[in-house]
Amino acid sequence: MPWGGRHTKNTIMRKLRNVTVLGHKIDIEYKTWHDGQFGSCDPDNRSIKLSHACLKDDELHWATLVHEVMHMIIWLTGVSHMEENNEEVYVRCIENLVLPWIDENKHRK
Ligand SMILES: [Zn+2]
């Protein structure tokens, strides 16, 4: 596209600059992966990266942020430092089973 014009076809969601996780300020950056990855978590640098694709899809943006924040929380708890690190399994369990259950049962509070 000449002149560096911007796409206006899609709704561009507001970028997040940072979030707080258990009292830690976590920087949020956006990048483009070419293998379909949507996010990554770098606990040592207190940083989460989200795909630019997330900015065009509200649900994907939220789901990816939640997923990467779970990695950050699990790292902060120390679970990631176990000899055999199965943290992806815990993250998937929470996101696919625990969060949907909470969502479906919110009205019971
Ligand atoms: Zn993951």
How would you describe this protein?
This protein is of the alpha+beta class and 109 residues long. The chain has a single domain, classed as Zincin-like (2-Layer Sandwich), CATH 3.30.2010. It has two helices and four strands. Strands 1-2-4-3 form a four-stranded mixed β-sheet, with helices on one face. Helix 1 crosses helix 2. The structure holds zinc ion. The site of zinc ion has 4 residues, from helix 1 and helix 2.
Give the helix/strand layout.
Blueprint: E1 18-21, E2 24-31, E3 39-42, E4 47-51, H1 58-77, H2 87-104
Parallel strand pairs: 2-4
Antiparallel strand pairs: 1-2, 3-4
The chain binds zinc ion.
The site of zinc ion has 4 residues, from helix 1 and helix 2.
- Bound heterogens, unique: zinc ion
H/E element string?
Answer: EEEEHH
Radius of gyration: 16 Å
Q: What would the average pLDDT be, to the nearest integer? A: 88
The proportion of residues in beta strands is 15-25%
For the biggest sheet, the summary is: 4 strands, mixed
Total domain count: 1
Q: Number of DSSP helices?
A: 2
* Strands in their spatial order, largest beta sheet: 1-2-4-3
* CATH secondary-structure class: Alpha Beta
Unreliable stretches covering 5 or more consecutive residues: 1-9
Helix- and strand-based class? alpha+beta
CATH architect. name: 2-Layer Sandwich
* Terminal-residue CA separation: 52 Å
At the fold tier of CATH, the topology name is Zincin-like
